[in-house]
Design a protein that fits this description.
The structure holds two protein chains of two kinds. By secondary structure, chain A is an all-beta fold. Helix content of chain A is 0%, strand content 51%. Classes of the chains: A mainly beta, B mainly beta.
């Protein structure tokens, strides 16, 4: 069945460090891929998405490229800020978008 | 405009009690989803509605779980005879539900259920 595997956390970085959170997926067909973020005390928010192979999603300095050959969708940011501290979830969905499959989440702590 | 709202935000139940969790989707959103998020885990799909029709309930863990959306707007997730393993955050999400490449799901803040 469809599934998402993402690196375990927590990830602790200093401000302005480079961030990578790995995400790989297993799916039939051609899924769409997403990164969601959950700030402390808040609900899940869509961070970025990519709906086909080689698409690059980007938002707020974060980027992820849909790599079909490696079944990956790694999240990157060149310079993290304290305000980026949150839990990040990788997710996939099939064409009908009736069901999302989420990874287990990666907690990011950014220290000043 | 208002986002997805859920109530109550926190619920403590004694084992064996019935609970009802409410979700108010964004106005005009056709599709509504329920997810269960255990501590330290990602959300897991429970069920999906398109308008009032429950099109997929494959994720409901047992027949103690029941969801409804009688008028195609507000939805209620009911858990009968709660067990400790039901303790989790229950998330509701809604989307426009149009056919096509993508419909973003907008999530509510969740209801944290603790079963003692």
């Amino acid at each position: 069945g469809d599934s998402v595997t993402q690196m375990e956390g927590p990830v602790t970085l200093s401000e302005e460090a480079f961030l990578t959170i790995n995400c790989t997926y297993t799916a039939t067909g051609y899924p769409s891929l997403f990164w969601y973020v959950q700030y402390p005390g808040e609900g899940l928010q869509l961070l970025l998405k990519a709906t086909k192979a080689d698409d690059k999603g980007s938002n707020k300095g974060f980027e992820a490229t849909y790599r079909k050959e490696t079944t990956s969708f790694h999240l990157e940011k060149g310079s993290v800020q304290v305000s980026d501290s949150a839990v990040y979830f990788c997710a996939l969905s099939g064409y009908n978008f009736n069901k999302f499959y989420f990874g287990s989440g990666t907690k990011l702590n950014v220290k000043p | 405009g208002a986002g997805v709202s859920q109530s109550p935000r926190y619920k403590v139940a004694k084992r064996g009690q019935d609970v009802a969790l409410r979700c108010d989707p964004i106005s005009g959103h056709v599709s509504l989803f329920w997810y269960q998020q255990a501590l330290g885990q990602g959300p897991e799909f429970l069920t999906y509605f398109q308008n009032e029709a429950q099109l997929d309930k494959s994720g409901l863990p047992s027949d103690r779980f029941f969801a409804e959306r009688p008028e195609g707007s507000v939805s209620t997730l009911k858990i009968q005879r709660t067990q400790q393993e039901d303790s989790a955050v229950y998330l509701c999400a809604s989307s426009l539900g149009r056919r096509g490449p993508y419909n973003e799901q907008f999530f509510g803040p969740g209801t944290r259920l603790t079963v003692l």
